[in-house]
Amino acid sequence: MPMTEQATGAHPPQPRPRSGGHPSAPEHVTGAQSLVRSLEEVGADTVFGIPGGAILPAYDPLMDSTRVRHVLVRHEQGAGHAATGYAQATGRVGVCMATSGPGATNLVTPIADAHMDSVPLVAITGQVASSSIGTDAFQEADIVGITMPITKHNFLVTKAEDIPRVIMQAFHIASTGRPGPVLVDIAKDALQAKTVFSWPPVMDLPGYRPVTKPHAKQIREAAKLITAARRPVLYVGGGVLKAKATAELKVLAELTGAPVTTTLMALGAFPDGHPLHVGMPGMHGAVTAVTALQKADLIVALGARFDDRVTGKLDGFAPHAKIVHADIDPAEIGKNREADVPIVGDAREVIADLVQAVQREHAEGRQGDYGAWWKDLSRWRDTYPLGYEQPGDGSLSPQQVIERIGQLAPEGTVFAAGVGQHQMWAAHFIQYDRPATWLNSGGAGTMGYAVPAAMGAKAGRPDRTVWAIDGDGCFQMTNQELTTCALNNIPIKVAVINNGALGMVRQWQTLFYNQRYSNTVLHSGQDGADPQARGTRVPDFVKLSEAMGCHAIRCESPADLDKVIEEANAVNDRPVVVDFIVHEDAMVWPMVAAGTSNDEIMAARDVRPDFGENEDD
Fold first, then answer.
1. Cα(72)–Cα(98) distance, rounded to whole angstroms?
2. Per-residue pLDDT tens for 47-71?
């Protein structure tokens, strides 16, 4: 992303000079020492990484730092997702570190993930010596070129004296405007060279000026549309969380009385339990939320981007709605859906100004009448609530497992989910009433996200209980980070929703591929041999977790569910893994099939909602 692009706003801690704001006395150091000192000064307190040849010079002074904790992960992908979980849970910049070549390329997936979800991340990689760049030297990879499409900006540093300035700029770019990942690739000879360190360096970003203050005329136009509308919806995206605008959002919603729908990335931005909340929209969104957007005559999009999972077939999305689109990234406005009132600005400032503008409209006697709209919304909410059926064979329902984990969790628990059916069930059946309590891979849909993200969240918020809700497929991608947790006193809790299959793919095979389950069964080989039929689990998640230093439990009966969850909650001196053996045929509903209009939402299998004859009145 070019440095001139900006999007969803944030107010994280900014790079800061030493105490008193006075420049520090120059210090004669190596480039590696300068890097560690720079990390200390920008406020980084945790780095997730793995050493290797090109980055090794940085690891020597890192050992002496009393202000930066390094967490040695087992795979660079784990470092990246941990840094993302740390950032999402704390609101600060997450930091990961890797060596050149394969170390750096193993960070590509978490960098792409952070880019899609606008997470402030700084990835520091070692590079071969500057004289060897471009020669296909051992463990050389053009990580700057590789990551250019998936970073907000990136830097190649070949001079030791540039390190402090680049680190300060990287943290500033990552955390301001639309947050996102920034890569800093440092040549090995720059880390080894002698230099002079002083702080703060001079910030030099002439082309980077995020617009945070919205235009007053656009705010007035938006307020007029809100009070004139009959069927408005506040469509809230993750940008509201990034901007720390949840208090302002609640004021705006209660002032207008408009229904609120929060995307997968925005869960917790508005309390799930609030009467104005109509649920999550999207492919697996609540019927009321999806239908509210379809039937709306005004959509006020706040820090959301009209992505395909929300809109369904784009040309059939919300056909009668005018659009107010507020975002800090001007590139997002009009990208997928033309805006009648475009507003560029930080979500917190936009919403605060909208509150004042709507109050002025009310003072002048213009107030929206949404009585008929709420009659429809309430009918849909009562007729098509979220729910699930218990398996007829007495086995565990995955929805019930996740629901009870949420109900029995201590107040303020942070939940991180992998990707697939368990992610959607966790979005639906756990109630999120506080910001920064729901972490997931929304845009990239990265399997293997949950365990390392939970690790990062717990490292950043050690006072909170952190549950990773994972599937047995996702869990087998990154579970080695449980060793990292066990050895570094990061006692996360992991619920493995074990249905023996790649559940979401299996659901699609059930619905669209005539139940031909090609390569989605995880507990048998190509020859169809099923070790579980012989009483052997491959892998045995309890034994595997115990081998990595965890307390491990298996739960197969609904009668044991609460007891097992309470046991897991009571263990706080090491990670806990619970292998929940659940019914393999459970499905995620509601559902809008890919490529179809949201009007074709199915409340359950073969159940098409009936909205009555007067839904468009």
1. 11
2. 999 999 999 999 999 999 999 999 9
Torsion angle of the four alpha carbons 53, 55, 58, 63, in this order, in degrees rounded to the nearest 10: -70
Asked if residues 601 and 290 have their Cβ atoms less than 8 Å apart, the reply is yes
Cα-Cα-Cα-Cα dihedral sign, residues 571, 575, 581, 586: positive
User: Taking Cα atoms as reference points, which of 264, 331, 33 lies closest to residue 163?
Assistant: 33
Closest CA to 454 of 433, 427, 484: 484
Pairing of strands 153-157, 181-187: parallel
How far is the first Cα of the chain from the last one, in angstroms, to the nearest whole number?
44
The helix (run of H) or strand (run of E) holding residue 196 is: strand 194-197
Do residues 509 and 518 lie in contact, with contact meaning Cβ atoms separated by under 8 Å? yes
Among residues 97, 504, 548, 591, which one is catalytic?
504
Catalytic residue (one of 152, 188, 244, 493) = 188
Q: Of 76, 140, 349, 361, which residue is the catalytic one?
A: 76
Residues across the chain: 617
Closest CA to 11 of 240, 327, 167: 240
- Annotation says 138 is catalytic: yes
Structure tokens given for 95: 């930091």
Residue 525 has pLDDT above 80, yes or no: no
Is 532 catalytic? The answer is no
- State the catalytic residue, choosing from 139, 192, 431, 480: 139
* Cβ neighbours of residue 21 closer than 8 Å, sequence gap 6 or more: none
Q: Where are the beta strands (DSSP E) in 16-84?
A: 27-30, 46-49, 69-72
Cα separation of 299 and 42, whole Å?
Answer: 39
Tell me whether residue 265 is one of the annotated catalytic residues: no
Contact call for residues 324 and 344 (beta carbons, < 8 A): no
The reported pTM is: 0.94
pLDDT in tens, 385-434: 999 999 999 999 999 999 999 999 999 999 999 999 999 999 999 999 99
244: annotated active-site residue: no
Determine which one of 14, 27, 138, 359 is catalytic.
138
CA dist list (Å): 97 to 63, 466, 483: 14, 24, 18
Q: Is 475 a catalytic residue?
A: no
* Confidence at residue 536, expressed as pLDDT on a 0 to 100 scale: 76
**Residue 127: how many CA atoms within 13 Å on its side-chain side?**
26
